[in-house]
Amino acid sequence: MGQYVAPIRDMQFVLHELLNVAEEFKGMPNHEEVDADIINQVLEEGAKFTQDVLFPLNHSGDREGCHFDAATNTVTTPKGFKEAYQQYVDGGWAALGCDPEYGGQGLPITLNNSFYEMLNSSNQAWTMYPGLSHGAYECLKEHGTDDQKKFYLPKLVSGEWTGTMCLTESHCGTDLGMLRSKALPQDDGSWLITGSKIFISAGEHDMSENIIHLVLARVPDAPEGSKGISLFLVPKFLPNADGSVGERNAITCGAIEEKMGIHGNSTCQMNLDGARGWIIGQPNKGLNAMFVFMNAARLGVGMQSLGLTEVAYQNALIYAKDRIQMRSLSGVKAPDKQADPIIVHPDVRRMLLTAKAYAEGARAFSSYVALQIDRELNHTDADVRKEAADEVALLTPVIKAFITDNAWIATSEAMQVFGGHGYISEWGMEQYVRDSRINMIYEGTNTVQSLDLLGRKILMDNGAKLRKFGEKIKAFVEDNGLDENMSEFITPLGELGDKVTKLTMEIGMKAFQNPDEVGAAAVPYLRVVGHLVYSYFFAQMAKIALEKQDSGDTFYKSKLGTIRFYFARLYPETAMLIRQARSGSANLMAMEADLF
Predict the structure, then answer these.
(1) Strand blocks (E) in 240-369
(2) Fewest 10 Å CB contacts: which of 10, 173, 199, 370?
(3) CA distance 118 to 50
């Protein structure tokens, strides 16, 4: 069913030529020995695992789905999933980016990020099982007690146990301040937790011997709203002192959701009936701790959509070169055939290049953010760590929302290349469209991400983080502004930087008078910022490609063609978006609700 070949050449271009990560790692004692050879070796081995083991299970896993046994409250994953997970564990992939103190390999997040792109291209539904475990690891590592970390982290790092996060309840989604789950303290320091959670990805399955649930609940006398939420560690099986699994805890799956996509992942309704758990961090501070998990998940969702964009593009390209339909408008291109391959048609190329550009832009952007996380956590210079942390905070909602929006566009365009065959499940393309749609919804809808970017990350600090990032763009524009070969990229980049500055000030002024102006402008505003970021990275990549286009390596000519398409066909969306953001809230809020 289709094919997938990991885009190692483009990954290497981004890591080595654009970001020069090996040199960056020299300023990080934990990663100073990670050179280009190590990076390339991991990418090559990761490609083998994802292409040969995971990709063949993607379509079959989607068709089969997960099986729920109501009598035992257990879930069986699709055929081959459990065996593939064991290969993943045996290969040490679960430990790739984890701390050696807990059995990890200690490799950079930047490299782990590239591997996760491959995982998601190969099989997003399967990848969610270990992906959520990594988020649980990060949360527990930062906020767990020493005893919790020593006991649980090695199991998560090895992959023996997996993890989930249990936030959502049926009456509240994003508004977690409304949650009702309760936790009662016990004399032995544990808590008994009661409540129901929904939409819990990988909440129950047969791939690991234990599942560690991170559960939000309220302790007695907790303040109302989000300030009264605590976080608890709740194992599926209560572990024995020696690390083996003991008796079943009172947290069970009541059902699995029937979903539009990601059928291979068990999205569970979880019931806690006095389940035993242990508090993580301080009472009523659970949301702060869970944000570590949530931010990791938001970056992970961006990688899910990059993966889907890439694999959908690859299969659409193969089809477009093979499928013959009609003749080229400018004359016959394949005289030995009854018709020309559809890649000769301009609009087919538009669809292909849309997916290609959105994949390559997302790869550069997400790799850059992953590198900033490595700098934040490991750099020896405190100022560098602070600057990196600010950029990660600023760009995380853009990673989640812009890349997932674009994947919905790209997978749909890639399916369209197939015509009627794209709508038929046997080709596999419609699965990518279905799978991509959830990424715009979970881990905070894209509207929530847009509100976070504009309201919290930009307006709350009067644009300080945005200005710092803008200074990098301005410096690049000034350094390359006199290069005539770069003008087609530098001019639109510089213009958009100025427009974003003015737009931000305008919305900020309106928001002082009417807070609804933020909600009305947020979604188009985030897309404008997304295009600013992509324009910045595409311009940098163009500079490299221009210098090497005559090297004999056609990769650079292809890169330039993609970048020119982006600025000619996708970047112009910003004019419409800016006009939408400026149109204000009146056209949305003036009409009474009963007139809808």
Answers:
(1) 245-248, 251-256, 267-280
(2) 173
(3) 6
Catalogue the active-site residues: 443
Residues in the chain: 596
CA–CA separation, 106 and 62 (whole Å): 33
Dihedrals phi, psi of 352, to nearest 5 degrees: -65, -45
Q: Which residues contact 561 (CB under 8 A, 6 or more apart)?
A: 353
pTM: 0.97
Burial grade of 380 (CB within 10 A; 0-12, 13-18, 19 or more)? exposed
Render pLDDT for 27-45 as a digit per residue (tens, 0 to 9). 999 999 999 999 999 999 9
524-561 burial, b at 16+ Cβ within 10 Å, e below that, comes to bbbbbbbbbbbbbbbbbbbbebbebbeeeeeebebbbe
Question: Three-state DSSP class for 145?
Answer: coil
Q: Which two tokens stand for residue 435?
A: 């799978």
pLDDT tops 90 at residue 549? yes
Q: Which residues of 215-224 are buried (b: 16+ CB within 10 A; e: fewer)?
A: bbbbbeebee
Rounded to 5 degrees, what angle do the CA atoms 398, 14, 361 make?
A: 35
The 3-state secondary structure of 255-279, one letter per residue:
EECCCCCCCCCCEEEEEEEEEEEEE
| Predicted confidence band of residue 162 (pLDDT cuts 50, 70, 90) | very high
Residue with tokens 């490991």: 378
593 DSSP assignment: G
The first and second tokens of residue 521, run together, are: 């402008």
What average pLDDT does range 124-136 have in this prediction? 95
- Copy the structure tokens of residue 137: 């690891």
Smallest CA-to-CA distance from 15 within 305, 359, 364 is with 364
For residue 577, what are its two tokens? Answer: 């978006």
Pick from 286, 298, 231: nearest CA to 457:
298
Enter the DSSP assignment of 327: -
**Chain position carrying tokens 């007690």:** 145
Residue 418 DSSP code: T
- Decide if 281 contacts 143 (C-beta within 8 A): yes
**In the structure encoding, which two tokens stand for residue 331, read together?**
């004359």
Tell me the residue type at 319: Y
Report how far residue 38's alpha carbon sits from residue 51's, in angstroms, rounded to the nearest whole number. 20
Place of tokens 């974003």: 500
Q: How far is CA 518 from CA 165, 254, 442, 468, in A?
A: 30, 39, 22, 22
Alpha helices in 78-159 (DSSP H): 81-90, 109-143, 146-158
| 3-class secondary-structure state, position 594 | helix
